[in-house]
Amino acid sequence: MRILLVEDDPTVAGFVVKGLREAGHVVEHADNGRDGLFMAASEVFDTIILDRMLPGGIDGIRLLETLRSQNNSTPVLLLSALAQVDERVAGLKAGGDDYLTKPFAFSELLARVEALTRRGKAEGPQTKLVVGDLEMDLLSRTVRRSTQKIDLQPREFRLLEYLMRHAGQVVTRTMLLEGVWDYHFDPQTNVIDVHVSRLRQKIDKPFATSLIHTIRNAGYMLRPE
Amino acid sequence: MIRSASLRFAVLFGIVFALSAMAFVGFLWYSTAGLLDRQVEAAISADAQGLVERWGEGGIPALLLTIQERMNENVDDDAIYEVTDPIGNTVGGNMGRWPQAVNTPGVFYELMVLRADTRSLAEVRRYDLPGGFRLLVGRDVRGRVELRRLLTNALFSSMLVITGLGAVGAFIIRNLFRRMVAEISATADAIAGGDLSPRVRRTGRGDEFDRMAESINTMLERIARLMDGVRQVSNAIAHDLRTPITRARARLEDAATHARCEGELRAAVERAVSDLDGVTAVFQALMRIAEIEVGARRSAFAEVDLGPLLADLTELYGALAEEHGLTLALKVPDTLTILGDRDMLQQAVANLLDNAIKFSPPGGVIRLEAGLADRHVRVSVTDTGPGIPPADIARATERFFRGEQARHTPGSGLGLALVQAVASLHEGSLLLTDAAPGLRATITLPAMPGGGATLHMKIPSSAPHQVESAAMAHAGHR
Q: B22, B208, B357, B434: which has the fewest Cβ within 10 Å?
């Protein structure tokens, strides 16, 4: 995937560029708002990672607003040292698709970037999700694996739906907390792990192979095999 | 001079006072002097009407006779009459000749006349009689003019007195104003000088100045509290963040000099990263608390239904509690609406549940309860853990405070501080009490202004928590 990174701090930028390239992406980098806007407007990217505070007269929010006013709908992930809830809201209101606060773990950034790219390609409303031999019918709200029907609580259903929609991608605990529970704070304890492990009891335990995998230092991934 | 507000107010007061006094005196003058005028005119009209009637009955001779009679009866000697024939010769009256100026009938004229060798002012009116005869009836108004002069003088001097009084009033107002402002500005100066303790003295009269003093004092209270908070936080940061940063630094330096293989190096770096993540978490919690305490989030207040909110949290934490061998029981009305910040309330209750789960030994029960009583919404989390010793309870909500038993559990010592901040943001409070055994943390929040928290009751079914909610509704009405 082609990703544009607009970030002025050379250490952070170098680290992110290296990481994204290792993950198999093509990365362009701009270190100020003016160049960033020029590149974003003149080339096609799958995702833009945008720092909020940039030198060169154009900050992240301005850049984003300009881009959106030109009907450019490339998914944008905002990076910011401003953690206040209101700042987050302002960033999303300006047209951002996701917001990540500095400092961040690279795994979190990568998971979110990949989720964003996937979202950009989402085609029409789906009625059925399939991963390997796991099937979810979104209309009748039933789940079955191979031939066996699996009973899930409403929340477990939503958790599994989120994992299936992001199948093959790393999903972090924060993403699950935001996407499944709509909570925007960090719980001090591992509440999410408990829920995932309960889901595993129902989805994976009775079967020969596991679908839900723990990715060390990052989160979870649902994938067949 | 315009730069002094007190003087400006005084001058304004003086002007308003003088203008109203002038209007009052003017009205007085007009109504007294005007009344005299109208009386004279009425007398002349009545007199003339009588004479015209006499003429109708007996012609000129009767008219002249009546005029003579009236002149004789006129004690004040102020009546003026004149009758002329069609050529203009005087046939009766006491004027001697027809005055030139009086040529239109039915109009009042004011003119100088010579009577008994003295000049005086007279008010006269002309009446035309059939056959070319003309009648003039008038009154000598010398006395009235004199009275008017006296009245004018009196009113003028009273005007002077009133102006004097106005000036005194303005002076008093100015001083009052100055004294009040001086009080406030002295306080403000002292505070600008760095001493946050002085407060504006209150008069105790409960008036506007008193209320202003109160508002200013409330504001100062808040500033002082914020300043204290800042000081406390910087001290806390200095003490409590140094530790993990030092640890991370030591790990890295140690690894850089002593690591014997890449595996060791990697392990050290990873541990250092997780130390730094801890530092970040503490920073974020601190920022969150600061953000809440500033009160900026109050703009995001909306109606929040605590019923589903608490049910969701119970669902999220229920699994974790079970994992720890605990039971999490929820008792809450179906609907319990307050005005507040959803994210913050979620986080506050989540922190209390986190603590309860962390400190309760397996087999315990954690009760999350909410209800409406005395126009307040109470949300409480009761655990069966060791509780907090009475000596520590007061300090438990301070930032970075960690009790003796908490020393060896993970945590930043900011959880309860955040709950406290959220409660204050909602103008509520956090109360920690001994639940014997265990700890009960109660967040008290004001119910919705107006009708209070809405509490919709369902017909109690067999579900126990709905029966509870009915009981609570009764308590709320009492």
A: B208
